[in-house]
Each structure stands twice: as C-alpha cells, then as structure tokens.
C-alpha cells in the first residue's frame, strides 16, 4: 500500500492492473496467461457466485459437474463450434506416462460433453425441460491476456438446458438474460444493455446469441454475460432425441449461458477511482470497516472498547471488520481500505466516545461531503440505510456516466467521433460487410442490437440502406 | 427405478455402483476413469462443501484460486513429490495449435504452484501464518477407477498453510485433522479413527501424514481425509523464506490437507442398505419427502390440500419436497425416495386428514417399527426431533458396526482372520519390512497409528519385536 495507483487519466490500462494487484484481487501466475485469484478477489467472486446461484435455483435450475477433459472428436462434431474453438484449445496428449490414443481437450466450454450425456439421459418428453448449471474452470488459449478480463484459465458458470420446443428454449434463453441483467443491476450496480449479438459476433454453434453489455470507466464496452439459443445444432450433432407426447422421436432444443470471473473486472472498471476499488455493498467481502483513532493510552482503551462494541453490534447484520492493528496509523488504514473499496468506514475517536456517536465515511463520496456523525444507538439501522444509499448511488452514477457517453450521431462523421469516446446508438442494416467496414474504420463493433427498440425505421449509419433496428456500437474489451 | 440394486451380501462392489447410479448420484463419462456428478450427487457434495467451508472459515482460513496448469519443472523440484506423482500425471503439450516449449501438468495437487506463489507473497513474520484453502478439480491418471472412490478427475478442497515455526505448523496439521473428524462425526454421521500414517503410506513430500479412517459396510477401510505436516520440504524446494522478529531469514513451515468427492462414496457405503442410499439428515439434499395417498377424486383434493399445507409449514425449517405427481403410485414413490436415501417420509392419507395427523416413516428403521403418527399441530418440532434422532442413530449404528468388526487378535493367526473381516488393533514395531510382509500375506495395510493410544508397550503382532504403539490394520479402498 506504499505506492499509489496510476491515475485513470494517465493510463487507464495501467490503472486497472494497478488496482487489481494493489487491492489484492489477483496476481500473475507462473504460467503464461494464467492468474491467481487472491483471497480478497476470491471472496468477491464468492459473493458474485452466491448472487447468481440463488437466482438460478429460484428459476428451477440445479447444479451438476461434468468432466474437465473432452475427447477431441466431440469438439469436431458441430461444424461451427470446432471452427470457433480450435485455435484456442489446450490439449492433453500424455496420461499416466503414455501417449494417449485420442487426445483430450481441456474444456473451453462444455456444450459437446454435456450434449453427449444429455443424449443418454433424455428419452421422453417427461425428461424435459432439463435445466442444469455447472460451476467450473475452463481454458482458452489466449494470446493477449489481462487479469480477470481475458485469461487462459478462468472460472465461470455455464448453464445448459434442453427443451421440447423451440419456443420454450427461446424463452429460457431470454429468461437467463433477464437473470443476468437483474444480477448486474441489483447486485453489481452495473447498468447493462440487453440485446442480440450480430451474426459475426455470436457464439460458435449458436442460432442466436444474446448479451448484456456494460460501459467501463474508459467508455469502452465489456460483454458481461451471454445467453445462447442453440436451436437443434447440438441436438443433431449429439443425437439428443426424445419421444414426444404423440410417441414421435424429436430432436430437443438447447440453450447455454454463462458469466465468468470477468465480472470481477467489470466491477473494478465501472466503479473504481484513483484511490482504488469501490465495491457495491451487496458484493463487498467487507461492507464496513471500523477504525479506532486515539493518541494516548487512556484514550486507547476507551476507544477500543467502543470499537469492539460497534463491531459486535453490527456483526449479525453486516459484513464488518474491526481494524484494531496497533502498528498502523489511522491514515494508513484509511488508504488501505479505500484501495480495497470497502463501501463504508466507521471512525471512532475519543470525542465520538464522549458524544456516544461514530463517524461514517462513504467510499463513494470523498472528503467532508461523504462524512456524517450518527449515534451509537440505532447504529445498525443507520449503517444499513447508508449501504443501501451507496448501492443506489453507484448504480445511478454508472448509468449517468453511460448516458453521458452514449450518442445518437447524425452521420458517419459524428459516428466515428462518437465511438472514439463512447457508445453510438444508430440505425444499422445488419449486413456483415457493413459491420466489417465499420470495425476497420473505427475499431468499433456492434455490441448488441438492444431488445428494447423504439418503433420506426431509419437509414444505416454507414451504408445508408434501409434499417429496421438500431444497434449499439462501441470499442470493446 | 424399475429394477432393484444387487444385494450387498451378493456382491458389495456391484451394490455400490448400482446405488450410485440408481440413486442418481453419478454416471460414467465418455472419458476413461472420469465421472459425471449428477444433480442429486452434486447437491449432496454442495452440502459437504458447505459443512467443511464453514469450519475452515471459523478457524481463520480464506479461500483463493490457483491455476490448473503447473509447469512440469515445478513438480520436479521436490524429490519425493515428483517420485510419488510422476506416474499419475496428465500433461498438456499443445496450446493454441502449437507445441508448448515446457509441457504443463494438469494439477494432481497444488503444493508446488502454491509454494511458488507463497515465496513471492511471504516476506516477513507479519505475513504469517498464511491460511489459504482452495476448492478445485484435480487430475490423477488412475488405472482402476470407481465412481467417487477413485476417479481420474475429482473435486476436492486443498488447504495450504505457512507458519513461522514447526510447532505452529504441527498444531495446524492436527487442528485440521480435528476439523475433518468433527465434520465426519457431526455432519456425515461417520465414526472415524484419527491417526498418523506409516512412513510407506504418507503423502509424497510430507514429513508426517495424518488421516481419518472409516469402516465401510463391507468392513474395508476408507481414507476419508488427510492432513500433512510438510516440514520445510516445500519451503526449501520453492525458497519460501521470511524475516523473523530478529531480522533473520528463515524458511517457513508448511502444511496441506484435503477432503474430496470420495466423501460421497463414504456416505454411500457407511449408511446404505439393500433398498439404496440412506443419507444423514445434515447432508441430505432433501430431508423430508411428503407423499399423498388417495383413491378417488374427493379424497384427492382433501389430501393434496393437507400435503400442501404440511409442505408450506415445514419449508422454512427443513429441506422438504412435496411429491404430488399423479402418474406414479404411492408405493412407487416410496421405493424411489428410499433408493435416494431421503431420511424421513411423511405420508398423508384420508384418515390422517380426518384425524389431523400425518404418518412419519424413518428411512433408517424399515417397516412398522419406523412409523409413527404425529399431529399436524407442532409438525415442525416433531420432524426436527425425528431428523436429529435419525442423525444420531446413523452414527451410533456405524460405530457399533465398526466396534463389532474391530478385533484385538492374540497372535498372527488371529490377526490374519481379523483383517479378512474387519480391523485389527495391534501392537506394531513400525518397521517398513514388517509392514510389507503383512501386506503381502494378508492384503491388509496399516490404516493409521491412532492418535489416542493406551499407555504401555507390547510385542509386534507380526515380528514379535518390542512395540511402543498400536496400529489399526485393515484392507482398504
């Protein structure tokens, strides 16, 4: 905690890796492109997991676990899937000292091996829908990696469901996109745009891919979760069939959807500032830190007693940490907990003890303005209220930021300027060539075609052709 | 659920795999030696995880995540470690379409990569103790595999701690053995013998290995958890040093400890019977199932109303499932839930509705004897009491079984008989040759040298040499 992070305005990428490392979220591993998730970062991930897992179970899903290793031949069964994932595979060729007859792929995603099992498990319409999720590690051999955002190995959840009809599978795909949106907004305080991916950006093997897109602090987009309608592509590749109510054999319709440790990177980039991390209270491993302030021994015992009492009072209802280390000054501690993004700090000094009060200091509002004195009596209520206010403020602030950097350019010149400093929300023809040209000329991609569209038609922002939908364009991670 | 499991007396091994598959815990994967943990088995594992994780956190440990891939050179740094694990490694030689310069090992255990990181993180005595746990998958190339008991890939937790002194590390090693014992006894209702491993059976790289050993339903032993005092072996191999309070550079002392999905197999084999699984209430995904019994439509609505009410009443306090499927008969449902080991069944028929009561049927006590009528009023209390009674009974029963099959043989002839049908608790000289001879002659191994020893000395059961400790011998999984 000796040094400060690089300011965002100086070098945003440096700021990001500084914060991730100095806030103790992660460290580089000795294997290229891999990371170590440190205890503080993992505690944040555990809270993300809990928030998602609760929502999955509430929507009727159960967890299971499928093997890490997938026979290479499985990956090759779905044409688009193999084309998409082949360049990124890590392959085991030796096991138990011997060359393997068939190489094993370390799963980059599990549609294929799960498809194989579903073909065995699903016989009749009574077995449907099958709603399974898996929490697992996956490996994609990436050339350019960044902590949390793109790593060779990452942690994620992958939901895989099978349905009797296309409609049900389509509904499931959108239901889970809704679950992701709800999690991002309510727990991570991240505003997201839910939409459809363009043809060129969709998942290898999907009929339609949906995404939630968020704007980071440097105005670039981050894909924070995806949900795919896979049609019957994997059902046909893996022969997943069921007897319907008329006793006819049909292929099932499948979906898959995932959120990864990338979400940690999103939380860092959406909320953080030049002092470090700012964590939304619902996800913060420590929601409140209590720091005693004293000068002499007489004050010390008095203050520490009040600090211990405040800690004990809060412990049942909030995640509180009492920092009563003697070897560090209050100022040093303030900096450390600010770096780690703890949403609320409670300071207790001799004067506070006298007055039967504590000082609250909000992480999201620096300086005097974020400070307030509250009585010890009724402390829990006041703290909970403040945490709610911080949660709401973080969301509001991120939304305002995104809106301030989202443009409706009148022409392609304005569009080019817009995507250099934010999102452009523009009519688009949907043509792949047009998309490729935009990318070449501006580095921006179609982030998504939002589900919510205003009625009407317009002219494509690039080629001028008639367009029935608007898309969000931006540069992306 | 159409067929029955093979009776234990006919073929115990078949009984085991029948139960695992028919109770829907796991299935074979298309990759040799790997398994798929099905939703019901995974829910059981989630409860095991929760019980352990809570205890780890209560003893000051935090979770983190280290990479799946370990450079081959790391494994080779600790002499005994590499000798022990080399034959079992799965090795990645291709990444992103290219041959790797240094092959990567898929972690069989993480002492080496964690040691590498600890060398970076630990500088001073202030950084100690470092108490980290990881929940992860690991891979060991096994020749003969069995669902949950021995699979090429398995799930586990591995704790890795570093300490300033040998005493502290030794204390930690035994503390975690205590945590495992407490979990086994309190949550899994499995009596275990906590003890030291013999030299030949210890972990590759450990100074001392400790274990908890349980007796399965066929009188064989299962190692259910291990805790290792690693001395300075890994500290020296990975150069993990710290400045002590006198500003002198010292190697740290490390420990590691693990419990795996093998614990699921232990639960199956300790408690199960010829009707299937019997789950201890604390770990059961479903603790109570409610089955309605009715003959005609008038009864049906009346009964279903009472069933729904009972479900609603219990839901807040116990994990309850209402099985109101119309397409199956009550008898069919009874069999299914018995197979799945649900500890308590509630039956509600028209006569029960009339009398304002329900019938409780214990899974652990078959037939009339396990049945009792209890009033709807105060149902939650009665159910909770019954679940506690079942939990206690399962433990008591397993302990009685182990005691009935643990012998104190007078001579080696009796010893040979003893280990063919249970455990022998005998004086042992501690000599490796003697141990090897016993194994060759009886197939039994030293399961452990129990921590609790009666005072005194005796003659080694095999060679007659003076012995200061008694050991538990048995055939093992």
Explain this structure.
2 copies of one chain form a homodimer. Chain A is α+β, with helices and mostly antiparallel strands. Chain A has helices spanning 12-22, 39-58, 72-75, 79-85, 111-121, 166-186, 233-238, 262-271, 297-315, 330-339, 350-355, 379-404, 412-420, 432-442; strands at 26-28, 35-37, 62-63, 69-71, 90-95, 98-106, 130-139, 153-163, 193-196, 208-215, 221-231, 241-243, 249-251, 253-260, 288-292, 320-322, 344-348, 357-362, 371-375, 406-407, 423-428, 445-450, 458-459, 466-467, 469-474. In chain A, the strands form 6 sheets. The first copy, chain A, has an 11-stranded mixed β-sheet, sandwiched between helices. In chain A, strands 16-15-17-18-19 form a 5-stranded mixed β-sheet, with helices on both faces. The radius of gyration of chain A is 25 Å and the shape is globular. The two termini of chain A are 28 Å apart. The mean pLDDT of chain A is 97. The interface between A and B is large, with 56 and 56 residues.
Name the descriptors.
eleven-stranded mixed beta sheet; 14 helices; homodimer; 477 residues; alpha+beta; globular
Briefly note the structural class of the backbone of chain A.
alpha+beta
Multimeric status of the protein: homodimer
Strand content of chain A: 25-35%
**Pair with the biggest interface:** A-B, 56 and 56 residues
- Count every beta strand of chain A, where a strand is a DSSP E run of 2 or more residues: 25
In round numbers, the mean pLDDT of chain A is 97
Principal-axis shape of chain A equals globular
Largest sheet of chain A: 11 strands, mixed
Proportion of residues in helical segments of chain A = 25-40%
Distance between the termini of chain A: 28 Å
Low-pLDDT windows of residues of chain A? none
């Amino acid at each position: 905690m000796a040094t400060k992070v690089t300011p965002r305005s100086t070098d945003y990428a440096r700021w990001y890796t500084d914060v991730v490392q100095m806030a103790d979220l992660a460290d580089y591993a000795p294997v290229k492109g891999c990371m170590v998730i440190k205890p503080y970062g993992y505690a944040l991930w555990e809270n993300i997991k809990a928030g998602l897992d609760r929502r999955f179970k509430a929507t009727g899903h159960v967890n299971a676990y499928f093997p890490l290793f997938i026979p290479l031949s499985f990956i090759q069964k779905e044409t688009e899937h193999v084309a998409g994932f082949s360049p990124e595979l890590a392959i085991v060729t030796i096991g138990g000292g011997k060359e393997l007859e068939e190489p094993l792929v370390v799963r980059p995603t599990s549609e294929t091996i799960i498809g194989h099992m579903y073909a065995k498990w699903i016989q009749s319409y009574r077995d449907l829908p099958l709603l399974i999720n898996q929490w697992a590690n996956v490996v994609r051999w990436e050339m350019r990696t960044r902590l949390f955002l793109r790593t060779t190995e990452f942690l994620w959840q992958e939901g895989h469901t099978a349905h009797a009809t296309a409609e049900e599978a389509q509904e499931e795909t959108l239901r889970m996109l809704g679950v992701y949106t709800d999690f991002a907004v309510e727990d991570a305080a991240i505003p997201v745009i839910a939409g459809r991916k363009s043809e060129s950006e969709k998942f290898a093997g999907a009929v339609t891919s949906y995404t939630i897109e968020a704007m980071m602090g440097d105005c670039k987009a981050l894909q924070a979760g995806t949900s795919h309608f896979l049609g019957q592509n994997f059902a046909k590749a893996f022969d997943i069939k069921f007897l319907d109510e008329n006793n006819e054999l049909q292929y099932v319709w499948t979906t898959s959807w995932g959120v990864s440790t990338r979400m940690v990177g999103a939380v860092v980039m959406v909320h953080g500032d030049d002092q470090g991390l700012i964590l939304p209270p619902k996800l913060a491993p420590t929601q409140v830190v209590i720091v005693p302030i004293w000068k002499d021994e007489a004050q010390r015992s008095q203050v520490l007693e009040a600090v211990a009492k405040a800690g004990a009072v809060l412990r049942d209802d909030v995640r509180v940490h009492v920092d009563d280390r003697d070897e560090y000054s209050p100022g040093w501690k303030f900096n450390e907990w600010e770096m780690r993004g703890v949403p609320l700090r409670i300071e207790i000094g001799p004067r506070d003890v006298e007055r039967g009060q504590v000082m609250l200091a909000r992480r999201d509002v620096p300086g005097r303005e974020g400070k307030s004195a509250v009585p010890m009596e009724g402390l829990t209520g006041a703290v909970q209220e403040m945490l709610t206010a911080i949660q709401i403020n973080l969301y509001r602030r991120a939304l305002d930021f995104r809106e301030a950097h989202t443009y409706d350019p009148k022409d392609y010149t304005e569009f080019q300027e817009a995507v250099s400093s934010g999102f452009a929300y523009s009519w688009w023809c949907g043509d792949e060539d047009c998309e490729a040209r935009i990318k070449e000329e501006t580095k921006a991609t179609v982030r998504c075609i939002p589900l919510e569209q205003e009625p009407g038609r317009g002219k494509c922002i690039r080629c001028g052709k008639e367009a029935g939908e608007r898309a969000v364009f931006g540069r992306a991670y």
